Amino acid sequence: MFDAKSLLDQFLGGAGGAASGGSDRRSGNGASGDLMSQGKDFLSSQGGGLALGGLAGMMLGTKTGRKIGGSAVKYGGLALVAGLAYKAYQGYQANQQGAPRPQYPDAGSVPLDAPRGTAFDPAGAQGGENAFAISLLTAMISAAKADGHIDADEQNRIFAKIDEAGLDSEAKAFLMDELRAPLDLDKVVASADTPEHAAEIYAASRLAIDPDHGAEKAYLQMLAARLDLDPALVDEIEMAVREAEAG
């Protein structure tokens, strides 16, 4: 089995990586040469990780979260997703109880250490961290396919970028299989074995895309409903992601 945790770090931020942004595939801005240059920068960076928008930006064209860096880069992708979902849940719980919202050093802070020992801690995930990471990667790729943009030509371009990213054969096979597969919301939802995991899957899906197209908005709404997430919690996740992007 490939190291899904490491692959997620390359998507969302790995220890020692330098921040970098991905081009938006829909805008038509940024030549493929720029993307390949980013890939070479990734390969040459000591520690082998980029901030959110690195490998995901190269592959999926996501522009979401390119400003998320700092501690998230140090701690990696699992901690980032868990921290965002945990922050959202804390805000949701406070609202439900009529209590003050938890305070962080600044609005964009992601509490990366706070989930440890809680139901949001990836270390306690059923099946282990690797299985947890696979569920998040699958959710992100599914979200990226929601607008129907990843056609055969786009797949070929993405596969070429994957070949440049220095991944092992199993990681490449996983990514290519997920990209080729039809959109399968049932598969994404089935991996949510706890309410906390469901919130984390939604947070990862939201990180993967900018829901500025009707199909993407509809996908996230359907995903939230299928994951049985309270709309108020979904709003908190959206707020946490936006704050992290802006912070």
**Shape, principal axes of CA atoms:** globular
Q: Which segments are poorly predicted (pLDDT under 50) over 5 or more consecutive residues? A: 15-53, 63-67
* Helix content bin: 55-70%
Average pLDDT figure: 77
Distance between the termini: 36 Å
Give me the number of helical elements: 12
Computed CA radius of gyration, to the nearest angstrom: 17 Å
Kindly describe this structure:
Helices cover 59% and strands 0% of the residues. The chain has helices at 4-12, 32-44, 55-60, 71-75, 77-97, 128-144, 152-164, 169-180, 185-190, 195-208, 214-226, 231-246.
For the structure shown, list the relevant keywords.
TerB-like; 247 residues; 12 helices; YebE; mainly alpha; Tellurite resistance TerB family protein; globular
Please provide a brief summary of the model:
The chain is an all-alpha fold and 247 residues long. It contains twelve helices and no strands.
List the helices and strands and how they pair.
Elements: H1 4-12, H2 32-44, H3 55-60, H4 71-75, H5 77-97, H6 128-144, H7 152-164, H8 169-180, H9 185-190, H10 195-208, H11 214-226, H12 231-246
Helix pairs in contact: 1-6, 5-10, 5-12, 6-10, 7-8, 10-12
